[in-house]
Amino acid sequence: MSTVSPISLDHIVSAAPDQVSSDLGGEAVILNVKTGTYYGLNDVGAFIWGQIQQPRTVAALRDALLAEYEVDITQCERDLISLLTDLASHSLIEVRDVATTNVPAPAQS
Length: 109
Hints:
Blueprint: E1 12-15, E2 19-24, E3 27-32, E4 37-41, H1 43-51, E5 56-57, H2 58-68, H3 73-89, E6 93-96
Antiparallel strand pairs: 1-5, 1-6, 2-3, 3-4
Helix pairs in contact: 2-3
């Protein structure tokens, strides 16, 4: 496992390329191809995993969770960041700063 810098709502996260995953009836199992380690996710974790198959900000993930589940925003943020930190420590996701990523600017009206 690697040391992970603190993850904030402004970071962009996505599934790492060196993994394979499978849906198991609403839950997910992920294999880190480099280490041969399996990682299991419950239904909420599997929902998050599905969302990060494309790069997303942590704030966008939080908003998707709030729309999908009845959960307090503070608890949601705390649990989301905890899960993402754990996934990052197992090299299952990539975490990038918005400032260093090519993210399209919002459309001007």
